Amino acid sequence: MSQSVLSLKNVTIYQEGKSILTEVNLEVNHGEFLYIIGKTGSGKSSLMKTLYADLPLTEGEGNIVDFDLASLKEDDIPFLRRKIGIVFQDFKLLPDRTVNDNMLFVLKATGWINNVDMQHKIEEVLNKVGMKDFGKKMPHQLSGGEQQRVAIARALLNDPELILADEPTGNLDPQTSAEVLEVLKKINANGKTIIMATHDYALLMKFPSKTLKCEDAKIFEVIQQRTV
């Protein structure tokens, strides 16, 4: 039976005191792949930021991976984010250390201690995204697509229940974007729930899935028609 990993009821999302999205009602079950689309400024990123508690939920009910967003305390935010993998448009890799050391930084920061366990985990997640031979590379030695694969691997380190990908292909060319989507789809096929904000409609046509659209301060489901 499907189990909800995200539930929003009658939520209004605010950014700097201004309401961005109103009457948001959303249920995402374990194993789903969900697109959130909309123009720049339509509320996609504000919604994503609310889900990983970068913006507080001040109106409505929200539950994500068993955390109540409305009553979430600041001390609880790191624990929430350990159960959520976050992939950003601009990769956010630490430029002064190797791929392996980027991974080590996250593991140590989230409480891992055993060096052998950490090395095994790093190899495991890099292998999942096709980057197992790139651990000694510096970020600047990688292409944009390779950096985003590393960022996806980083998001998998703590075996999250949910991955939030905020415009993960926004800085990539169409072919590389499709390759990154294939990685995310494969991860989803192995049981991970993924919510991806994007404005790239070509990807939606190539990799169709359930889609919600942000428009006129509302969010609603749209029905895709796949082109032949």
UniProtKB/TrEMBL annotation:
Keyword Cell division: yes
GO molecular function, one term: transmembrane transporter activity
Transmembrane residue ranges: none
CDD domains, per database record: ABC_MJ0796_LolCDE_FtsE
Gene3D superfamilies: P-loop containing nucleotide triphosphate hydrolases
InterPro entries, A to Z: AAA+_ATPase (IPR003593), ABC_transporter-like_ATP-bd (IPR003439), ABC_transporter-like_CS (IPR017871), ABC_transpr_LolD-like (IPR015854), MacB-like_ATP-bd (IPR017911), P-loop_NTPase (IPR027417)
SUPFAM superfamilies: P-loop containing nucleoside triphosphate hydrolases
GO terms under biological process: cell division
ABC transporter domain mapped to chain residues: 6-228
Record family assignment: Belongs to the ABC transporter superfamily.
Function text: Part of the ABC transporter FtsEX involved in cellular division. Important for assembly or stability of the septal ring.
Entry protein name: Cell division ATP-binding protein FtsE
The species this protein was found in: Flavobacterium xanthum
